User: Fold this.
Amino acid sequence: MTSVYNLPVSYDAVDGPRKAPQGHVLATIDAMVGPMPPARFLNRFLPQPAFSIPNHLLPSNDAFTHVPDMADSVAEIYEPLAAALNQRTEGGPRCPGFVFDITAARIAHPDRRRYMKPHICCYKEPNLEIVQAADKASRIDLGYAELFIDVSPDPLRDFFNNPPPDVRRSNYSLRSYHHVFTGQRRHEHVEDLFGQHIAHVVEVLARQSRTFLFTVAIHGSCARLLRWDRSGCVVSEAFDVRARPNVLCDFLWRFSQTSDAGRGHDTTVEYALPWEEVRFRDAVRLHILTQLDPGEDLEEAVEQHYAPGQVFAARVLHQDHPASDEHTRRFLFSRPVASSLALLGHGTRGCWAVDAATSEVAFLKDTWRNAYQHPPVYLANEVQSTRTDELLGRHRPSWACAPIDSQELKIAPQARRHYRLVLGTVGRPFSTQRGTKELLHACHDVFTAMRDALARDRRLHRDISTGNIVLVQEPDSETRRGYLIDWELSSRVRADGRAEKSKSVGTAWFMAKRLSIRLLVQGYPHVLQDDMESLLYVVLHAALRWQPHDLPQGAPRERWNVFYKSNLATAARDAAAGVRFDSDAVREWLDTMMAFHAPLPTHGAELRDKWTGDGQAVDDFWTDFLATRDLEPANRTEHEFRAVASPTAPLAPWTSASRPPMGEGWVSSSRELSSFASPRPRPRRPRHRRRYIPLPSIRVLLRQSRNWRRGGGRGAKK
Assistant:
């Protein structure tokens, strides 16, 4: 089985906001482990095949002597590095079958994060021509990359730490703090660089079908090997490619000799045959014709699910049968409606899919879960699962440093398995709602489904969100119906109405406020009222985003940000306060539901005790409301809902000339570090020069802390 390349991504992932680099760092910081000795890294993740004896391996001596140990620009590093990596002799290349290309030379806007690419990408030789023929603005480079190398000109810009030899590594942080001690601006810049590295990893995982990815980070002449999967990242010790070139050369040789699966490709995905692509396109077009909005362009709607020349096939195992070819069905898919833009977690890719045998349209969900209620994806009779989690947790290997920024993990390591799920209901996204009538009718359908599941199967959904509601046009219905999909996180309930699964789950934007403080809620099971609260937030979100109102551009997103960060039960009321909706029905529905959910002291008895039991009181109000109010069928209005922070802000310039002496620095005050807060007026103080203060080593600080504890702390007798 061979690997596939350049999977299309959803239009939201192409045009929508992206997480800032520092956001990637914060989201991943507790799921990194290292520094792993390079020899152990290679033997664990790229074991030398018994049949592959490196008799044609180019000599590693002096392989990277032209790479400087520090430079003023990244080009001074990556140009000689790429030349050394592509070196060939009569015996063959350094990495047989692969070529290294300077991707940094093909960037449309080098000063914007959205357009940034890794400095060097490794490709299979046949794929290089495809990449070089593409437009500079294209992201096809990451759709074909086997691995990539990011370069910085100075070793002090390394995000990670190499502890001294013969020490207890658990006393050292994996993260390097040289850049913190030498100034806040430098600290932020180093986080930006590593965050951009993570952003490239995330994009490769979105544009390829992968189980993991190798990358290389080089700072001056010091290199680190990294392995990424949906549970986190394993980091190797830094090694100097000038002094120890054999490490990088051995890595490249092993990388070239392993299989596509050994390089991280999910080889269970295949290219669709030409006739299968035609079948997929025609089936999707026919299904969209039954769901098309009045006046909507058919071909534009088809493009949301079909990218010409990019149709793929995957087999899905039947849930109640053992793994075998006779118990699998072949599904065709193309452009997803949702692409994951984060490293950790489910990494979900959701697509319209077509059964290759019957042409039936379904929804295919490709995801990484820590649950075991569905048959996972198998490759060569082995379950596809993550491996980083094996090295995380309390029982870390002796070579591992302490977790970054904490002595204990904030989030328990997640062992994830790869799943593909096929869901029968296929409709249009909830975001395509036409007006007030469809919004409230569709959400009432969802509410009915929630109550029916509880009454008939004693089951809670536990993940009510805009992404888990689809709109389906049925022949006997004037308004599209709302379908609640993705019951993967659902749970049966006990006799007291609480979910049997105690762990809190859900989409963060729409989680009930009592469950939204994740560090404190691991033992809080869901109840029906939590899902009802999530549905209230779904309607509120839709009203701010797609209903006509008097808020200026940008204000809906700002209000939603404030709402999301609040843990108060009245957060929804605060987000909707003062908003004048053109639809009186929307305002009335929100006011009534918010009073049911969190009544104020001024509310009368008729609004109290409604948010209880099986939701019958809420259903009675909602059913009567839909029957007696005139609801606007087509008053949809688009409001700007982009991220507040610009994803295209340029990186702050930095040169090696501005680097303070190593091991020294000044520490800014807390007010200077809090640059996001508005400074308070304060009396002028005499100007003075900042003094460079020698900082004690971590070993000295630990010894002082240990002596302080043994002496009984502050005030102990000496």
Q: What stands out?
A: The longest helix spans residues 184-207. The radius of gyration is 28 Å. The mean pLDDT is 81. The chain is about 30% helix and 15% strand.
